[in-house]
Design goal:
Blueprint lengths: L1 E7 L2 E6 L3 E6 L13 E7 L2 E7 H6 L10 E6 L21 E6 L4 E4 L18 E7 L2 E6 L7 H7 L5 H7 L5
Parallel strand pairs: 2-10, 5-7
Antiparallel strand pairs: 1-2, 1-8, 3-6, 4-5, 6-7, 9-10
């Protein structure tokens, strides 16, 4: 399997390349009040707002650094009915939704066999998005599970169904 490898404070993490829609250079992010601190805000991508998750803030409690190697990686929100395994969508009525992940040192790919990954031996209920680990000549690399990044409460904030502005318009209220 092909992975995009990135680093956070010297530790390596990997995203399944099949979940990646596009890798973008760092660009300004519009902050959005009322969201958890690791939601950096939104970017405009092809005329649509895309929520940005700052992985350094989520994992380490600090904002991502604006490095030459910092990227915005658009991924399909794993809970939006998009099946990244190549099969049919779990719910064809659920539209594909994108998230942008703010990642440091996201400049290379690596091929790793899925069976090279094993559970790390430490439960991480507060970081359920941290998957199994694999070892290579450079040490450990940990698989980041995109579908586990957002809990139901945060997903509802980012992807209201229907959007709050649409509800207000149909109710006759101003947004």
């Amino acid at each position: 399997m092909l992975f995009l490898v990135f680093e956070l404070d010297g530790e390596r993490y990997a995203l399944d390349a099949r979940e990646i829609v596009r890798v973008l250079p760092l660009q300004p992010v519009r902050a959005f009040a009322g969201t958890p601190p690791y939601i950096a805000g939104v970017i405009d991508h092809d005329g649509a707002p895309v929520p940005v998750v700052d992985l350094a803030r989520l994992a380490l409690g600090r904002p991502s650094r604006a490095l030459m190697s910092t990227r915005l990686v658009l991924v399909n929100d794993g809970a939006s009915g998009v099946d990244t395994s190549g099969g049919a969508s779990a719910d064809i009525d659920t539209p594909s939704r994108c998230l942008a992940l703010l990642l440091e040192s996201a400049t290379r790919t690596q091929t790793l066999a899925a069976d090279a990954f094993a559970e790390g031996g430490i439960a991480t209920p507060e970081a359920r998005w941290l998957g199994p680990v694999a070892s290579d000549a450079h040490g450990f690399v940990q698989w980041v599970k995109v579908d586990q990044l957002l809990d139901a409460r945060v997903r509802a904030l980012l992807f209201p169904d229907p959007p709050s502005w649409r509800r207000a318009a149909t109710d006759g209220r101003a947004p």
